[in-house]
Amino acid sequence: MSKKRISATVSEDFDSKLNERAQKLGVSKSALVSFALGVYMSQLDILEKNGTSEKDLYDMIRFNYEEMSR
């Protein structure tokens, strides 16, 4: 499987949280973000297959983002 590089801009606080968590787990920040995003995307796929509407998915993403940004 070929890999592609992406770029994301996050708040300084969120970056600090990522660094701390990656260090605790003993993995790179990139590996942590890749794994977490993969899990999240899998959850979205499951919700879609179970008939969750796109609006509900958007609301869930927005809620999670707002909680993360606090």
Core attributes:
70 residues; mainly alpha
Description:
The chain is mainly α. It has a domain at 35-70. Helices cover 71% and strands 0% of the residues. The protein has 3 helices and no strands. The longest helix is centred in the middle third of the chain and has 21 residues, at 29-49. The radius of gyration is 14 Å and the shape is globular. The termini are far apart. The mean pLDDT is 88.
| Number of extended strands | 0
How does the major sheet shape up?
Answer: none
Global morphology: globular
Instruction: Provide the β-strand percentage band.
Output: under 5%
What is the averaged pLDDT score? 88
Secondary structure topology:
Elements: H1 12-25, H2 29-49, H3 54-68
Task: Compose a concise summary of this entry.
The chain is built from three helices and no strands. By secondary structure, the protein is mainly α.
